[in-house]
Structure to design on (223 residues):
């Protein structure tokens, strides 16, 4: 079984938004369907959720400002679909928790394994992680997000996300309460960073989804 489903451990990682989004959405809908089935007849199989997702994508096509936005829209609207399936069954708060689990956990082991392999095998883990961040900014996030590089040198890479496409889409669908679930997904790779082992630390003390004005992604070498 391939534990590095995102291809991070190869040392020449380039995001593949179509592949990565398909992995995430398939795993997410399978988890949501399983949770719904635990609380009664499986009234929302994954196939019906994919059909609803396609309808929402078509209705929101004006948000596809570039190719990354196409897949970011799909991923974000998948959360909306899953939430609307579970909320009538579980109630608002438990549905939010279930959506978070369904989004964060299924591919968590794969993301942790890939990130760990990349950092452990890189001649310079800090430089490797910065390269991944910059690659994702270009190929996975695109112009639907706005970034500010507050520091970018050999010892620091401080990236601030000042506009979040995910949050805007969720707000437009009256589901901004789901943005923290998307923020939580990053914990899968953040927790792998070991300052003693890899020579740098990561700090993110807030996010737009948590009520902040921006999302700071700050990487800094440990001197």
């Amino acid at each position: 079984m391939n534990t590095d489903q995102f291809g991070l451990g190869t040392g020449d990682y380039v995001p593949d938004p179509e592949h990565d989004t398909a992995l995430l959405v398939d795993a997410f809908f399978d988890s949501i369907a399983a949770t719904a089935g635990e609380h009664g007849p499986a009234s929302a199989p994954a196939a019906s959720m994919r059909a609803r997702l396609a309808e929402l994508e078509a209705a929101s096509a004006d948000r596809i400002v570039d190719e990354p936005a196409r897949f970011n829209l799909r991923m974000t609207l998948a959360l909306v679909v899953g939430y609307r399936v579970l909320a009538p069954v579980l109630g608002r708060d438990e549905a939010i928790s279930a959506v978070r689990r369904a989004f964060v956990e299924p591919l968590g082991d794969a993301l942790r394994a890939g990130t760990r392999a990349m950092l452990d095998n890189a001649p310079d883990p800090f430089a490797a992680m910065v390269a991944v961040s910059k690659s994702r900014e270009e190929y996975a996030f695109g112009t639907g997000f706005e970034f500010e590089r507050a520091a970018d040198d050999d010892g620091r890479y401080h990236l601030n996300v000042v506009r979040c496409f995910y949050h805007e889409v969720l707000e437009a669908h009256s589901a901004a309460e789901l943005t923290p679930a998307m923020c939580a997904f990053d914990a899968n790779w953040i927790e792998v960073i070991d300052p003693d082992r890899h020579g740098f630390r990561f700090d993110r003390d807030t996010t737009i989804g948590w009520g902040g004005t921006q999302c700071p992604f700050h990487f800094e070498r440990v001197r």
Remarks:
- The chain has a mean pLDDT of 93.
- Residues 8-221 form one domain.
- The chain is about 55% helix and 10% strand.
- Strands lie at 146-152, 156-163, 200-203, 215-221.
